[in-house]
Amino acid sequence: MTETLLETAGLCRAFGPLKAVDDVSIAVKAGTITGLIGPNGAGKSTLFNLLTGVLAPDAGKIRLKGEDVTGLPPDALFTRGLGRTFQIPRPFARMSVLENVMMAPVGQTGERVWGPFVGAGRVRAEEARIRARALEVLDFVTLAPLADHPAGKISGGQRKLLELARVLMGDPEVILLDEPAAGVNPSLTATLIEKIEALNRQGKTFVIIEHDMDFIMRHCDPVIAMAEGRLVFEGSAAEAQANPVLLEAYLGT
Ligand code: ADP
Ligand code: MG
């Protein structure tokens, strides 16, 4: 049986009277690219914010690799192997693409690089190591030619690749992507998908929010659907494709 990496039980989060996430229980299997679909306002981003510790749940539990991580802050979850990108990435605009990647937290190794008592030689060695790793990651996401460009000057699609590069610095086991293809031109979307699939073959698990049903069907399996805060479907991509309610809701047929 495949290991469950990330799971929730009865997760709830309200904003005033609005139940943004309402009794959601999911189980993300190791090695999958799980698609999370649903109309605007369904609660998808809120679910990501709960999973990554950006928001605290009102009720329910979150387990990562079998451990209860409910209520842990984002950096603690990141250290345990959970990485995420944001629906609207905001890089440090005046810093270069490379510097933005070098600034990313390094994650699971748990090393404190810039501690107050670290000698200058050690700092230089660490900086060289982080720079080398950042360049490697930039090369992987095809942004190496833009390493010295100000991050504020790159396109929206390149910004999504930069976000992915920053996440990869931490070498997470599970990566949550919030609408990676939204507003990205087809050629950069293809690059992004190619990179996601390559990382998946290396063993990384993904949960991807998209409201493009076609994207989900082609690149994700299994598929989870939310509407009005609730889980309304959970199954294989093939089952999703054959589900009349989903088809009606998302394809307008
Ligand atoms: P999705 O990502 O599926 O489009 P969201 O999780 O962003 O949906 O939002 C779910 C609902 O919660 C929406 O009605 C949204 O307006 C509301 N919501 C999200 N974040 C907040 C917040 N910080 N404060 C108040 N309402 C919020
Ligand atoms: Mg959203």
Automatic annotation (TrEMBL):
Q: Where is the ABC transporter domain?
A: 6-253
Q: One GO molecular-function annotation for this sequence? A: ATP hydrolysis activity
Question: Which keywords does this chain's UniProt record carry?
Answer: ATP-binding, Nucleotide-binding, Transport
SUPFAM superfamilies the UniProt entry points to: P-loop containing nucleoside triphosphate hydrolases
Q: Does the keyword Cell division apply?
A: no
The record's PROSITE patterns line, in alphabetical order, gives: ABC_TRANSPORTER_1, ABC_TRANSPORTER_2
Q: Which Gene3D superfamilies match?
A: P-loop containing nucleotide triphosphate hydrolases (3.40.50.300)
| UniProt entry tagged with the keyword Nucleotide-binding | yes
Q: What is this protein called?
A: Amino acid/amide ABC transporter ATP-binding protein 1, HAAT family
Q: Which organism's genome codes for this protein?
A: Roseivivax lentus
